[in-house]
Amino acid sequence: MNLRAGDRPMLPVIAAAWLVAIYGSTILVWFVTILLLADPVLFVPGLIYLYWIIFGPGRSACAKATWKPRMRGWGVWRALARYFPAELVKTAELDPQHSYIFALHPHGILTCNSWMNFSSEATGFSKLFPGIEMHTGTISWNFITPVVREFCLMHGMCDVSRKTMVELLSTPGRALMVAIGGASEALLAAPGTMDLILNKRKGFIRVALTTGAHLVPVISFGENDLFDPIAVEKHSFTWYTQQLTKSMLGFCVPPFVGRGILGYPYGLLPKPRPIVTVVGKPLPVAQWQGDLHSLEGKQLADKYHAQYVIALKELYEQHKDLYASDRVRSMKLVA
What we know:
alpha/beta, two-stranded parallel ribbon, 11 strands, about 40% helix
């Protein structure tokens, strides 16, 4: 598929609609799967397939990175990059002799930038970082969902379980992008702000210590400007629904308003605002084979976490006036 956004004016808008649709696909796919299992002809093959992807060898496909990411070059992602537009900025070289954790901030409501920058070649990742094999982390639920699983694997995606991350990053030349703030940070997304959940997020530091992967701070300026969140009162029905969804599925999409597909001012599409994702200088981490839950292990994790926070703040200060000149307030670590 070799589509050019400039050839068809509506293509970028269609790509944005496609992006939003992806996030609602999981529930729809399971609904269709249950209907298909009701067919006597499909029941046994369907159960075998589900067992294979949930409990069998198919479960480890993302950790072993055995699937070729054939959809990374899909033209729809280039069209999507034109829609905003999106840009990927490199500030330092990456040595393929090491592995890397790309720690992405902020999560945003839909983490739109990750599809263009890290799950595809829309902004030229492989040209900017030759020799680096990029993988994007997502929730485990996606890899036990029919069709969604294959879609993710063909983009080089993997789940963010510790086991998968450690196995993947044990091979030099690989990089894994993780949105550190997760679902909780999505609920904080608002235009002109960058409120981050980072102070207690040390799992990615422990993975780096286990594998020796270097930490790369990544800031996506503009990600929080794509939607207007709808305020939810704490302890309301909607609030409890969000908490339940987050605990059961590992993610939660807060209610939001974007733009309409035909240019209407209100809708579910992201607003066409510039997204500039800046990849910072890697922070070297020495591999450590001790007990990460021991006092020494915790102190080591705290040490690298503090260094990472400093590096992230420096990266923000260096680029905020260029890429976030209309901000309401500067980056803030709220939890």
